[in-house]
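step: validate -> pass
step: tokenize input -> pass
step: predict -> running
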Amino acid sequence: MPLLGPDSITPGNGGAPRTGWQRLSDTFLRQPTQAPQEVPDFSRMSDTEKRSRIVTIDPAERKVGIIASILAAALALYFYFYPMVAKIPVVTTVKPKGTTCAPLVGVKDLQYVKSTNTCNGVYPASHFILPLVVSVVFAIAIYVTVRIRRRSPLAFALVMTGLAFGSLFVLVPYGLAGAWVMLRAWRTQKYGAPTARGRALEGWVPPPPRGSTRRPRSTGPSGSRRGKAAEPEKSTGRKPPTANKRYTPKAPPPAKSKKKVTPS
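step: predict -> pass
step: emit ->
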């Protein structure tokens, strides 16, 4: 009888071995079970750890990224691979004139569809290859960004995937998902947690920008830094000028000019 390891048993399932689907679900979809999180001691956290807290995705964002990646791959197959293989007529660029459609080079079975007022036809396989490859690449890019656990690349991949399909119904949810990820990053940077609102967690101080060697210190009313004595002026090697001992009398005040009286 083969021995079952701890990873092969589902907790709360009577010790029964897990199925393949349960393992995949635990790996890619389910959020890892964690103990109730307490507010970390930010005073012991370095600036590097704080930056990592800001840029790293959490389990909720990981779950959204995995679902978005799978959905993007499914949409790519539905929009491009299925019509290419099944040779289903799709909307073309030809505008109908009344109820007739002008022929289009490379497109077969061009016909007018009254319900949509469009000219539908069967495109060759070469028409679908490029958008199919681009859509699948962006779906894989979302999964890769989830694996590297970075918020900015994940948000960028989500928005670009929505743009790749060229459909408003795909762009809106993917764009909102990317904005949601960046909003959580901003909240973490400002308040210390992606779910915090309006008030920072106790002890949270945002890390300084990368490249800065020290944090700016507050200054007093006179402009000098607090807690630091005024530094003495550096000597330039020249002696200060001495007072001149020669006495110079004050100049007398200018004489007032007398008005000349003219005889009447």
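step: describe -> The first helix runs from residue 20 to 28.
step: cleanup -> pass
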